[in-house]
Design a protein that fits this description.
- By secondary structure, the chain is of the alpha/beta class.
- It is 31% helix and 8% strand.
- The protein has four helices and four strands; from the N terminus they run H-E-H-E-E-H-E-H.
- The protein has a two-stranded parallel sheet. A two-stranded parallel ribbon has the order 3-4.
- The longest helix has 18 residues.
- It is globular.
């Protein structure tokens, strides 16, 4: 009985309609970030070409991530692959490049502790120094850093997160010119230093 009436096709239609609503009812959308693909739930399992065609017809300038599936580095990539790479919980050793070795836009998606959402028991926070290192490593490799901070059930940012982010903010006040407006250095990360 629990499975009665469930339909993945119905869900896909619902999702496409939700994306259409987002793209038409809320003004200009600059970036669209999909976040699900693995095993057989990738690419056309989501009717991804149809979805992206609809999005581009409504807003041809929107920037779309690579998380509907496919290889963003490939020469002959499908329409739904997107415009930028989004590696999760890691910074690529040399940034992200296409099949010819040309850098392409990317952003590392990393949590401030070990969880994407709030977890009271997760006190394994990265230090401000570690966040700063990730920030300039991403910048020097031509990428951005998305740092996930999970609010609790009441919408409050945990105090430890606030302390770390304030420390990073103080560093940015003094050293922001090393990040803002900077991009790929063209140099490999040294073995140390």
């Amino acid at each position: 009985y629990k499975e009665q009436g469930k339909s993945f096709d119905n869900y896909i239609t619902y999702m496409h309609n939700q994306v259409r609503e987002l793209m038409t009812n809320y003004g200009k959308i600059d970036i669209l970030w999909f976040d699900f693909h693995y095993n057989n739930l990738t690419g056309e399992a989501w009717r991804a070409s149809e979805l992206i065609k609809m999005v581009r017809e409504i807003n041809p300038d929107v920037i779309i991530d690579d998380r509907l599936g496919g290889d963003i580095k490939a020469e002959d990539k499908p329409l739904y692959v997107g415009d930028f790479g989004s590696p999760e919980q890691m910074i690529p050793a040399y940034g992200v490049s296409d099949y010819k070795g040309n850098p392409i836009p990317w952003e590392a998606c990393i949590t401030l502790n070990n969880n994407w959402g709030y977890s009271q028991s997760d006190q394994n926070y990265k230090s401000a120094r570690n966040v700063i290192n990730m920030l300039f490593e991403c910048t020097s490799k031509g990428g951005n850093l998305i740092l996930n901070v999970g609010p609790d059930a009441r919408g409050n940012i945990p105090q430890k997160s606030v302390e770390i982010l304030k420390e990073v903010g103080e560093w940015m006040k003094c050293n922001g010119e090393a990040i803002y407006g900077c991009t790929y250095s063209g140099l490999q990360k040294p073995e140390f230093g």
